[in-house]
Amino acid sequence: LQSKLPNIGATIFTTMSQLAQEHGAINLSQGFPDFGCAPELLDLANQAMQNGYNQYAPSSGLPLLRQQISKKTEQLYGYTANADTQITVTSGATEALFAAISAVVRPGDEVIILEPSYDSYVPAIDLNGGVPVFVPLTFPEFAIDWQKVKDKLSSKTRLLILNSPHNPSGAILTPSDLQFLKELTQEHPFLIISDEVYEHMVFDGKKHLSLLTEPELAERAFVISSFGKTFHTTGWKVGYCIAPPALTTEFRKIHQYLTFCTATPFQQAIGQYLENPEPYLTLPQFYQQKRDLFAELLKPSKFELIPCAGTYFQLARYNQISDLPEVEFAQWLTKEAGVAVIPVSVFYHDQTDHRLVRFCFAKKEETLQAAAERLCKL
Ligand code: PMP
Ligand code: GLN
Predict the structure, then answer these.
(1) Ligand 2 atom 2: residue of nearest CA
(2) Which of 60, 83, 131, 294 could be bridged to 361 by S-S, CB 3.0 to 4.6 A?
(3) Banded pLDDT at 260 (limits 50, 70, 90)
(4) Which ranges carry the Aminotransferase class I/classII large domain (predicted)?
(5) Per-residue DSSP letter, 337
(6) Structure confidence by residue, pLDDT tens digits, 53-82
(7) Is position 6 within any domain?
(8) Do 152 and 197 belong to one domain?
Protein backbone atom coordinates (compact mmCIF):
# COMPACT_ATOMS: atom_id res chain seq x y z
CA LEU A 1 0.00 0.00 0.00
CA GLN A 2 1.35 3.39 -0.93
CA SER A 3 0.96 5.63 2.12
CA LYS A 4 -0.85 8.96 1.73
CA LEU A 5 1.30 10.30 4.57
CA PRO A 6 4.65 8.60 3.92
CA ASN A 7 6.64 10.82 6.24
CA ILE A 8 4.34 10.58 9.23
CA GLY A 9 4.59 8.11 12.11
CA ALA A 10 2.96 8.21 15.55
CA THR A 11 2.86 11.80 16.84
CA ILE A 12 5.58 13.04 19.15
CA PHE A 13 2.97 13.22 21.94
CA THR A 14 2.16 9.52 21.61
CA THR A 15 5.84 8.64 21.30
CA MET A 16 7.02 10.59 24.34
CA SER A 17 4.10 9.63 26.58
CA GLN A 18 4.77 5.97 25.74
CA LEU A 19 8.47 6.34 26.43
CA ALA A 20 7.65 8.04 29.74
CA GLN A 21 5.46 5.11 30.71
CA GLU A 22 8.02 2.50 29.71
CA HIS A 23 10.71 4.16 31.80
CA GLY A 24 8.52 5.30 34.69
CA ALA A 25 9.47 8.92 33.94
CA ILE A 26 7.55 11.96 35.15
CA ASN A 27 5.60 12.98 32.07
CA LEU A 28 5.99 16.67 31.27
CA SER A 29 5.79 15.95 27.53
CA GLN A 30 2.24 15.64 26.13
CA GLY A 31 0.11 18.64 27.13
CA PHE A 32 -2.56 17.58 29.62
CA PRO A 33 -3.23 18.22 33.31
CA ASP A 34 -2.42 15.51 35.87
CA PHE A 35 -5.16 16.90 38.16
CA GLY A 36 -8.92 16.58 37.90
CA CYS A 37 -11.50 19.01 36.56
CA ALA A 38 -14.00 20.84 38.80
CA PRO A 39 -16.23 18.39 40.76
CA GLU A 40 -19.20 20.54 39.73
CA LEU A 41 -18.43 19.89 36.07
CA LEU A 42 -18.26 16.14 36.74
CA ASP A 43 -21.64 16.33 38.48
CA LEU A 44 -23.11 18.13 35.47
CA ALA A 45 -21.79 15.43 33.12
CA ASN A 46 -23.24 12.67 35.36
CA GLN A 47 -26.56 14.47 35.54
CA ALA A 48 -26.62 14.97 31.77
CA MET A 49 -26.27 11.20 31.31
CA GLN A 50 -28.92 10.46 33.97
CA ASN A 51 -31.22 13.01 32.33
CA GLY A 52 -31.09 11.29 28.96
CA TYR A 53 -28.53 13.34 27.00
CA ASN A 54 -27.23 10.13 25.48
CA GLN A 55 -28.22 10.26 21.82
CA TYR A 56 -26.82 12.25 18.90
CA ALA A 57 -26.66 15.99 19.41
CA PRO A 58 -27.59 18.26 16.49
CA SER A 59 -24.62 18.16 14.12
CA SER A 60 -23.72 21.80 14.77
CA GLY A 61 -23.81 21.24 18.55
CA LEU A 62 -26.39 21.55 21.36
CA PRO A 63 -28.13 24.95 21.14
CA LEU A 64 -27.40 25.65 24.83
CA LEU A 65 -23.67 25.23 24.29
CA ARG A 66 -23.61 27.30 21.11
CA GLN A 67 -25.52 30.08 22.87
CA GLN A 68 -23.10 30.04 25.80
CA ILE A 69 -20.12 30.19 23.43
CA SER A 70 -21.75 33.14 21.69
CA LYS A 71 -22.28 34.92 25.03
CA LYS A 72 -18.71 34.32 26.19
CA THR A 73 -17.30 35.50 22.86
CA GLU A 74 -19.36 38.67 22.97
CA GLN A 75 -18.34 39.46 26.53
CA LEU A 76 -14.65 38.80 26.02
CA TYR A 77 -14.02 39.99 22.48
CA GLY A 78 -17.00 42.23 21.66
CA TYR A 79 -17.89 40.03 18.68
CA THR A 80 -21.44 38.82 18.17
CA ALA A 81 -21.36 35.33 16.65
CA ASN A 82 -24.75 34.01 15.61
CA ALA A 83 -25.17 30.68 17.45
CA ASP A 84 -27.17 29.17 14.57
CA THR A 85 -25.10 30.24 11.60
CA GLN A 86 -21.57 30.85 12.90
CA ILE A 87 -20.75 28.43 15.73
CA THR A 88 -20.08 24.71 15.31
CA VAL A 89 -19.19 22.38 18.17
CA THR A 90 -16.53 19.82 17.21
CA SER A 91 -14.63 16.85 18.61
CA GLY A 92 -11.87 18.97 20.04
CA ALA A 93 -9.89 21.63 18.20
CA THR A 94 -8.21 18.83 16.24
CA GLU A 95 -11.38 18.09 14.33
CA ALA A 96 -12.15 21.78 13.83
CA LEU A 97 -8.68 22.34 12.34
CA PHE A 98 -9.07 19.42 9.96
CA ALA A 99 -12.58 20.47 8.92
CA ALA A 100 -11.59 24.11 8.36
CA ILE A 101 -8.55 23.16 6.28
CA SER A 102 -10.58 20.63 4.28
CA ALA A 103 -13.35 23.17 3.70
CA VAL A 104 -11.15 25.65 1.87
CA VAL A 105 -7.89 24.09 0.65
CA ARG A 106 -7.89 22.72 -2.90
CA PRO A 107 -5.04 20.90 -4.66
CA GLY A 108 -2.23 23.36 -5.35
CA ASP A 109 -3.44 25.98 -2.87
CA GLU A 110 -0.70 27.42 -0.68
CA VAL A 111 -1.03 27.64 3.08
CA ILE A 112 1.31 29.80 5.16
CA ILE A 113 2.54 28.00 8.27
CA LEU A 114 4.53 29.81 10.95
CA GLU A 115 7.15 27.53 12.45
CA PRO A 116 7.52 25.97 14.94
CA SER A 117 3.92 24.85 14.34
CA TYR A 118 1.49 22.48 16.01
CA ASP A 119 1.76 19.05 14.44
CA SER A 120 -1.74 18.56 13.02
CA TYR A 121 -1.76 21.44 10.50
CA VAL A 122 0.57 20.11 7.81
CA PRO A 123 -0.90 16.57 7.47
CA ALA A 124 -4.37 18.09 7.02
CA ILE A 125 -3.01 20.37 4.27
CA ASP A 126 -1.20 17.45 2.61
CA LEU A 127 -4.30 15.23 2.59
CA ASN A 128 -6.19 18.00 0.79
CA GLY A 129 -3.48 18.44 -1.84
CA GLY A 130 -2.44 21.83 -0.48
CA VAL A 131 1.13 23.11 -0.36
CA PRO A 132 2.48 24.25 3.02
CA VAL A 133 4.68 27.34 2.74
CA PHE A 134 6.87 27.70 5.81
CA VAL A 135 7.84 30.95 7.50
CA PRO A 136 10.02 30.71 10.63
CA LEU A 137 9.15 32.73 13.71
CA THR A 138 12.04 34.83 15.02
CA PHE A 139 14.37 33.20 17.53
CA PRO A 140 14.39 33.33 20.53
CA GLU A 141 11.34 35.65 20.70
CA PHE A 142 9.10 33.50 18.49
CA ALA A 143 7.59 36.67 17.02
CA ILE A 144 6.14 36.94 13.51
CA ASP A 145 8.37 38.54 10.89
CA TRP A 146 5.62 40.07 8.74
CA GLN A 147 8.00 41.00 5.95
CA LYS A 148 8.87 37.32 5.61
CA VAL A 149 5.17 36.45 5.52
CA LYS A 150 4.58 39.11 2.87
CA ASP A 151 7.44 37.76 0.77
CA LYS A 152 5.80 34.32 0.70
CA LEU A 153 2.35 35.49 -0.38
CA SER A 154 1.39 34.62 -3.94
CA SER A 155 -1.70 34.37 -6.11
CA LYS A 156 -1.98 30.78 -4.85
CA THR A 157 -2.05 31.71 -1.13
CA ARG A 158 -5.36 30.46 0.19
CA LEU A 159 -4.84 30.37 3.92
CA LEU A 160 -2.67 31.57 6.79
CA ILE A 161 -2.66 29.59 10.04
CA LEU A 162 -2.05 31.49 13.26
CA ASN A 163 -1.76 30.12 16.79
CA SER A 164 -1.83 32.44 19.80
CA PRO A 165 -1.03 31.78 22.59
CA HIS A 166 1.50 29.72 20.73
CA ASN A 167 2.31 26.06 21.24
CA PRO A 168 5.19 25.29 21.85
CA SER A 169 6.76 28.73 22.51
CA GLY A 170 4.20 30.44 24.74
CA ALA A 171 4.45 33.63 22.64
CA ILE A 172 1.33 35.74 22.08
CA LEU A 173 0.10 38.07 19.34
CA THR A 174 0.55 41.82 19.89
CA PRO A 175 -1.65 44.70 18.68
CA SER A 176 0.91 45.47 15.98
CA ASP A 177 0.66 41.88 14.68
CA LEU A 178 -3.05 42.39 14.10
CA GLN A 179 -2.31 45.71 12.41
CA PHE A 180 0.21 44.12 10.01
CA LEU A 181 -2.19 41.29 9.32
CA LYS A 182 -4.98 43.72 8.46
CA GLU A 183 -2.70 45.50 6.03
CA LEU A 184 -1.77 42.22 4.33
CA THR A 185 -5.39 41.15 3.98
CA GLN A 186 -6.17 44.41 2.23
CA GLU A 187 -3.70 43.44 -0.49
CA HIS A 188 -4.30 39.66 -0.59
CA PRO A 189 -7.62 37.81 -0.32
CA PHE A 190 -6.40 34.86 1.82
CA LEU A 191 -8.43 33.26 4.60
CA ILE A 192 -7.18 32.70 8.16
CA ILE A 193 -7.37 29.91 10.70
CA SER A 194 -6.75 31.23 14.18
CA ASP A 195 -5.98 28.44 16.64
CA GLU A 196 -6.83 29.98 20.01
CA VAL A 197 -7.07 26.87 22.18
CA TYR A 198 -4.98 28.55 24.92
CA GLU A 199 -7.11 31.73 24.87
CA HIS A 200 -7.61 31.59 28.66
CA MET A 201 -3.94 31.15 29.50
CA VAL A 202 -2.35 34.56 29.02
CA PHE A 203 -0.22 35.85 31.89
CA ASP A 204 1.19 38.97 33.56
CA GLY A 205 -2.03 40.96 33.17
CA LYS A 206 -1.89 40.84 29.38
CA LYS A 207 -5.01 40.21 27.30
CA HIS A 208 -5.57 37.52 24.73
CA LEU A 209 -5.90 39.15 21.32
CA SER A 210 -8.52 37.09 19.55
CA LEU A 211 -8.90 37.65 15.83
CA LEU A 212 -12.54 38.23 16.69
CA THR A 213 -11.60 41.60 18.20
CA GLU A 214 -11.00 42.89 14.66
CA PRO A 215 -14.13 42.74 12.46
CA GLU A 216 -12.06 42.97 9.26
CA LEU A 217 -10.13 39.85 10.29
CA ALA A 218 -13.13 38.01 11.74
CA GLU A 219 -14.87 38.20 8.37
CA ARG A 220 -12.23 35.94 6.82
CA ALA A 221 -11.35 33.72 9.78
CA PHE A 222 -12.10 30.37 11.34
CA VAL A 223 -11.48 30.95 15.06
CA ILE A 224 -10.95 27.66 16.87
CA SER A 225 -10.87 26.85 20.58
CA SER A 226 -11.21 23.88 22.93
CA PHE A 227 -12.75 23.25 26.34
CA GLY A 228 -10.23 20.46 26.87
CA LYS A 229 -7.64 23.10 27.74
CA THR A 230 -9.92 25.54 29.53
CA PHE A 231 -11.69 23.09 31.84
CA HIS A 232 -8.95 20.45 32.33
CA THR A 233 -10.90 17.89 30.28
CA THR A 234 -8.68 17.05 27.29
CA GLY A 235 -10.29 13.60 27.07
CA TRP A 236 -13.81 14.98 26.59
CA LYS A 237 -12.91 16.33 23.16
CA VAL A 238 -15.26 19.30 23.04
CA GLY A 239 -14.02 22.14 20.86
CA TYR A 240 -15.58 24.66 18.53
CA CYS A 241 -15.17 26.84 15.49
CA ILE A 242 -16.53 30.36 14.97
CA ALA A 243 -16.63 31.60 11.37
CA PRO A 244 -18.78 33.82 9.15
CA PRO A 245 -21.98 32.10 7.87
CA ALA A 246 -20.64 31.32 4.37
CA LEU A 247 -17.50 29.67 5.78
CA THR A 248 -19.54 27.90 8.46
CA THR A 249 -21.80 26.36 5.80
CA GLU A 250 -18.78 24.79 4.10
CA PHE A 251 -17.18 23.86 7.43
CA ARG A 252 -20.33 22.00 8.53
CA LYS A 253 -20.48 20.00 5.30
CA ILE A 254 -17.14 18.47 6.27
CA HIS A 255 -17.84 18.24 10.01
CA GLN A 256 -21.06 16.26 9.45
CA TYR A 257 -19.12 13.51 7.67
CA LEU A 258 -16.06 13.53 9.90
CA THR A 259 -17.87 12.98 13.20
CA PHE A 260 -21.43 14.32 12.70
CA CYS A 261 -21.38 15.52 16.32
CA THR A 262 -19.34 15.19 19.51
CA ALA A 263 -20.43 13.53 22.78
CA THR A 264 -23.83 14.92 23.86
CA PRO A 265 -23.56 14.65 27.68
CA PHE A 266 -20.26 16.56 27.68
CA GLN A 267 -21.77 19.28 25.49
CA GLN A 268 -24.69 19.61 27.91
CA ALA A 269 -22.40 19.70 30.96
CA ILE A 270 -20.12 22.35 29.48
CA GLY A 271 -23.11 24.37 28.26
CA GLN A 272 -24.42 24.54 31.83
CA TYR A 273 -21.00 25.07 33.41
CA LEU A 274 -20.36 28.10 31.18
CA GLU A 275 -23.16 29.95 32.96
CA ASN A 276 -20.49 30.97 35.48
CA PRO A 277 -17.54 32.80 33.87
CA GLU A 278 -15.33 32.51 36.94
CA PRO A 279 -13.59 29.23 36.04
CA TYR A 280 -12.16 30.62 32.80
CA LEU A 281 -11.64 34.15 34.10
CA THR A 282 -9.45 32.82 36.93
CA LEU A 283 -7.49 30.41 34.73
CA PRO A 284 -4.68 32.89 33.94
CA GLN A 285 -3.88 33.26 37.66
CA PHE A 286 -4.07 29.51 38.17
CA TYR A 287 -1.58 28.74 35.43
CA GLN A 288 0.63 31.78 36.03
CA GLN A 289 1.23 30.45 39.52
CA LYS A 290 2.29 27.10 38.07
CA ARG A 291 4.54 28.77 35.50
CA ASP A 292 6.21 30.82 38.25
CA LEU A 293 6.56 27.88 40.60
CA PHE A 294 8.20 25.77 37.89
CA ALA A 295 10.59 28.60 36.98
CA GLU A 296 11.51 29.05 40.64
CA LEU A 297 12.09 25.33 41.09
CA LEU A 298 14.37 25.24 38.03
CA LYS A 299 16.48 28.24 39.15
CA PRO A 300 19.27 26.09 40.58
CA SER A 301 19.32 23.97 37.39
CA LYS A 302 21.39 24.46 34.25
CA PHE A 303 18.30 24.92 32.10
CA GLU A 304 17.82 28.39 30.70
CA LEU A 305 14.15 29.32 30.38
CA ILE A 306 12.65 31.24 27.45
CA PRO A 307 10.03 33.75 28.70
CA CYS A 308 6.50 32.29 28.54
CA ALA A 309 3.62 34.74 28.01
CA GLY A 310 0.85 32.16 27.65
CA THR A 311 -0.11 28.44 27.27
CA TYR A 312 0.89 25.78 29.78
CA PHE A 313 4.26 25.14 28.18
CA GLN A 314 7.73 26.27 29.17
CA LEU A 315 10.63 26.16 26.73
CA ALA A 316 14.16 25.69 28.04
CA ARG A 317 17.63 25.65 26.51
CA TYR A 318 19.86 22.85 27.70
CA ASN A 319 23.21 23.62 26.07
CA GLN A 320 24.93 23.80 29.47
CA ILE A 321 23.88 20.20 30.08
CA SER A 322 24.36 18.43 26.77
CA ASP A 323 25.23 18.95 23.12
CA LEU A 324 22.88 16.22 21.91
CA PRO A 325 20.30 17.23 19.29
CA GLU A 326 16.82 17.80 20.72
CA VAL A 327 15.23 14.45 19.84
CA GLU A 328 18.09 12.49 21.34
CA PHE A 329 18.26 14.77 24.36
CA ALA A 330 14.51 14.32 25.01
CA GLN A 331 14.95 10.53 24.85
CA TRP A 332 18.00 10.63 27.09
CA LEU A 333 16.23 12.88 29.60
CA THR A 334 13.27 10.51 29.72
CA LYS A 335 15.34 7.36 30.11
CA GLU A 336 18.25 8.58 32.22
CA ALA A 337 16.89 11.54 34.20
CA GLY A 338 13.29 10.30 34.47
CA VAL A 339 11.57 13.40 33.04
CA ALA A 340 9.81 13.26 29.67
CA VAL A 341 9.74 16.40 27.50
CA ILE A 342 8.97 17.36 23.90
CA PRO A 343 11.79 18.24 21.47
CA VAL A 344 10.89 21.45 19.63
CA SER A 345 12.62 20.46 16.37
CA VAL A 346 9.68 18.16 15.51
CA PHE A 347 7.57 21.30 15.01
CA TYR A 348 9.80 22.45 12.12
CA HIS A 349 9.55 20.86 8.63
CA ASP A 350 13.37 20.88 8.39
CA GLN A 351 13.96 19.87 12.05
CA THR A 352 15.51 23.25 12.92
CA ASP A 353 17.28 22.51 16.18
CA HIS A 354 17.76 25.35 18.69
CA ARG A 355 18.70 22.91 21.48
CA LEU A 356 15.36 23.50 23.20
CA VAL A 357 12.85 21.28 24.94
CA ARG A 358 9.23 21.91 25.96
CA PHE A 359 7.97 21.17 29.47
CA CYS A 360 4.23 21.05 30.24
CA PHE A 361 3.55 22.68 33.63
CA ALA A 362 -0.15 21.74 33.83
CA LYS A 363 0.76 19.49 36.72
CA LYS A 364 0.23 19.19 40.47
CA GLU A 365 2.73 21.05 42.62
CA GLU A 366 4.20 17.77 43.82
CA THR A 367 4.72 16.58 40.24
CA LEU A 368 6.56 19.79 39.34
CA GLN A 369 8.66 19.50 42.51
CA ALA A 370 9.59 15.89 41.84
CA ALA A 371 10.51 16.72 38.23
CA ALA A 372 12.56 19.75 39.25
CA GLU A 373 14.46 17.70 41.80
CA ARG A 374 15.58 15.37 39.01
CA LEU A 375 16.30 18.22 36.57
CA CYS A 376 18.42 20.14 39.09
CA LYS A 377 20.77 17.16 39.45
CA LEU A 378 21.89 17.44 35.81
N1 PMP B 1 -4.08 23.27 18.69
C2 PMP B 1 -3.07 23.39 19.57
C3 PMP B 1 -2.11 24.52 19.41
C4 PMP B 1 -2.94 22.46 20.60
O5 PMP B 1 -1.93 22.56 21.44
C6 PMP B 1 -3.87 21.41 20.70
C7 PMP B 1 -3.79 20.33 21.74
N8 PMP B 1 -2.94 20.40 22.67
C9 PMP B 1 -4.90 21.33 19.79
C10 PMP B 1 -4.98 22.28 18.79
C11 PMP B 1 -5.90 20.23 19.82
O12 PMP B 1 -6.90 20.44 20.75
P13 PMP B 1 -7.95 19.32 21.17
O14 PMP B 1 -7.32 18.51 22.22
O15 PMP B 1 -9.14 20.09 21.65
O16 PMP B 1 -8.28 18.52 19.95
N1 GLN C 1 -1.72 19.43 22.02
C2 GLN C 1 -1.10 18.60 23.01
C3 GLN C 1 0.36 19.02 23.15
O4 GLN C 1 0.82 19.92 22.49
C5 GLN C 1 -1.14 17.16 22.62
C6 GLN C 1 -2.37 16.71 21.93
C7 GLN C 1 -2.23 15.32 21.42
O8 GLN C 1 -1.60 14.48 22.03
N9 GLN C 1 -2.79 15.09 20.30
O10 GLN C 1 1.06 18.45 23.93
Answers:
(1) 31
(2) 294
(3) very high
(4) 26-375
(5) I
(6) 999 999 999 999 999 999 999 999 999 999
(7) no
(8) yes
Our count of domains for the chain comes to 2
Reported pTM: 0.98
Average pLDDT (89-114) is: 98
Residues 176 and 229 grouped into a single domain: yes
Which of 249, 276, 303 terminates a domain? The answer is 276
ipTM: 0.98
Give the whole-angstrom CA distance, residue 132 versus residue 317.
28
Is 305 in the same domain as 194?
Answer: no
Question: Domain range for residue 201?
Answer: 39-276
Atom of ligand 1 nearest to the CA of 13: 8
Alpha carbon distances (Å) from 63 to 14, 252, 272, 308, 309? 34, 15, 11, 36, 34
* Residues 6 or more apart whose Cβ sits within 8 Å of residue 7: none
How many whole angstroms from 250 Cα to the centroid of ligand 2?
26
pLDDT of residue 326: 98
Please identify, by atom number, the ligand 2 atom nearest to the C-alpha of residue 197: 1
**Atom of ligand 1 minimally distant from the CA of 32:** 8
Residue 4 included in any domain: no
d(CA 270, CA 236): 10
Cα–Cα distance list, 356 to 44, 228, 282 (Å) = 41, 26, 30
CATH number of the domain within which 181 lies:
3.40.640.10
Q: How far is the CA of 52 from the centre of ligand 2 (A)?
A: 31
Residues in contact with ligand 2 (CB, 6 Å cut-off): 11, 13, 30-31, 167
